[in-house]
Amino acid sequence: MIGASTWPIPRFKKYTFPRPAARLSGEKTLVLSPQTGYNRTSNAPWGRTGGEPMGFIHDKLDIKFLILYLMARVAGPVDFTTLADLTFCDDGVEYFDFAESVAELVSTGHLAVEGDLYTITDKGRRNGEICESSLAFSVRKKCDRNLAKVNAVLRRNAQVRSELLPREDGGVTLRLILDDDKGNLMTLDLLAVSEDQANQLADQFRLHPEALYENILQTLLGEPPL
């Protein structure tokens, strides 16, 4: 009988979880994956929401402190998915608590959103600085490691850009921009016959911006291109 089934009870240090309600044999539950921020299938009797939170983040206030810590150090505006990937660095973060925390931080003026990109406000930066010491040291160190990877991509994207400018004759002007830490290295305008062609050229430019820049220099200097 289903009601008489014996379920394995997960054991953690100092905690014994209560026996869950009876379920069909082999039934699976959805548990949040902290690595991706998306649900994954688990054979555990129930998700993390049924017991004591694991990790150092225990409630929505902790999640808000964590979000402000991250947003104060990210190199540029980030979308919701990137912010989620950064925030799920601790096993105690639940997806719905995270989503609600982001919305509440926007409504209270700690975060600003334009389109699908989030930034921290001066208010959020001030309050986050006051509260960041409440985050565990190990959580902050893990955040810093993850931020280094994300910031490298954001800085790269900020230095290599493209713009599509419509023309009166029906064509498109593709503007390619390459910067370094000191300023602009190259701004190049090209005529494209269509928006699709312009996007294709822009994609190739983002893959090899330095190669294009070096080849232009070599050509202008009268040397064989690389």
Radius of gyration (Å): 25 Å
Quaternary form = single chain
Q: DSSP helix count?
A: 7
Structural class: alpha+beta
Largest sheet: 3 strands, antiparallel
Strand order of the largest sheet: 5-7-6
The average pLDDT is 79
Number of strands: 10
Distance between the termini: 75 Å
Range of helix content: 40-55%
Q: Kindly estimate the percentage of residues that lie in beta strands according to DSSP.
A: 15-25%
Shape: elongated
**H/E order of the elements?**
EEEEHEHHEEHHEEEHH
Low-confidence stretches: 1-7, 9-50
Description:
- This protein has about 230 residues and is an alpha+beta fold.
- It contains seven helices and ten strands.
- The chain has helices at about 60-70, 80-85, 95-105, 120-130, 135-160, 195-205, 210-220, and strands at about 10, 15, 30, 40, 80, 110-115, 115-120, 160-165, 170-180, 185-190.
- The strands form four sheets. The protein has a three-stranded antiparallel beta sheet.
- A hairpin with a 2-residue loop joins strand 9 (about 170-180) and strand 10 (about 185-190).
- The longest helix is centred in the middle third of the chain and has 23 residues, at about 135-160.
- The chain is elongated.
- It starts with 10 loop residues before the first strand and ends in a 6-residue tail after the last helix.
- Residues about 1-5 and about 10-50 have low confidence and may be disordered.
What is this structure's SSE topology?
Layout: E1 11-12, E2 15-16, E3 29-32, E4 39-42, H1 60-71, E5 78-79, H2 80-87, H3 95-107, E6 111-114, E7 117-120, H4 122-131, H5 137-159, E8 160-166, E9 172-180, E10 183-192, H6 195-207, H7 209-220
Antiparallel strand pairs: 1-2, 3-4, 5-7, 6-7, 8-9, 9-10
